Amino acid sequence: MPSRGSEAGKLAVLKDYVALTKPSIIRLNAIAAFGGFWVASKWHINWWLLLFMLIGSALTMASACVINNYWDRELDKKMERTRGRALPMNRLRPGPVLVYGIILGVVGLAVLFVLVNPLTGWLGLLGYFVYVVVYTMWLKRTSTWSTSIGGVSGAMPPVIGYCAVTGHVDAGAWMLFALLFLWQPAHFWSLAIRRVEEYRAAGYPLLPVVKGIRRTKLQMIPYTLLLIPTGILMYLYGYVGYFFLGISILGGVLWLVQTLVGLRTSDDTKWAKINFIISVNYLMVVFLVMIADTTWSV
């Protein structure tokens, strides 16, 4: 009979393997994928298709996060935020982690290609390639453009959800892509400003490290500003109703004002923390309202 110690050890290993998938990221992106699916379905829900889409996209995202952890394991040792992870602490061996990540990706993409539709599989593969190869392996170590270009992968979940229903890319898919693509840089740069010295020590050429915090704040403005007309366009094209229109404008203006306040603040860390919190809540609220206020179609 296994001892308590061995059971506790197995549970700890299991928790480490789950943590490699970055559950908080998967959860936020699952809401976005669900929102895209709901907008395209207009309340006529194919529940099995929804389930397969969520499973396939979640496993694909989990795989990308695991490979990211695997690839960054040495650099993660240099940052306080990441040095406690399983790989930098040598609680897990790199080889099995790599195999684990590959298996998750193969299964996730297979579900999208076979049980959803080929378009969602290709979109998942595109997002996976951008995140793992373009962002993690290349730009993250070489260019300030890593955050913006890497945003392509983060913008895929709602598009995958939408195209699971429609089977093609149209204006709705592009607007959902724009919403997530525009959200990401300002969201991530808020975190990067708070941790700028850690990123500098680790050697990541992020925008606040290379160009400075003020330049980063200025570059956040057009992204948050453009979120407002994106929400308006979704209403004008008939994908959502008045309630979403009002909440998206209110949330966008609030975030934009907070971003502009950053140009005059004397406490960058406090400002960036508030901006980060606003960004997370903006996305969650906007997509929940989008689901609730999707225009009914008979």
Give me some keywords for this one.
14 helices, 2 domains, Tetracycline Repressor, domain 2, 298 residues, globular
- Sketch the topology as an H/E string, one letter per element: HHHHHHHHHHHHHH
Query: What structural class results from the helix and strand content?
Result: mainly alpha
Number of helices: 14
CATH topology of the largest domain: Tetracycline Repressor, domain 2
Give an overview in words.
The structure is a single chain. The protein is built from 14 helices and no strands. By secondary structure, the chain is an all-alpha fold. It folds into 2 domains: 15-168, UbiA prenyltransferase (Tetracycline Repressor, domain 2, Orthogonal Bundle), CATH 1.10.357; 170-201 and 211-298. Helix 2 (23-41) packs parallel to helix 14, helix 5 packs antiparallel against helix 6 (118-142) and helix 7 (146-154) packs across helix 9 (171-194). The longest helix has 25 residues, at 47-71. The protein is globular and about 50 Å long. The model has no long low-confidence stretch (mean pLDDT 93).
Topology of helices and strands:
Elements: H1 4-20, H2 23-41, H3 47-71, H4 73-76, H5 94-116, H6 118-142, H7 146-154, H8 156-166, H9 171-194, H10 196-202, H11 207-210, H12 213-236, H13 242-261, H14 268-292
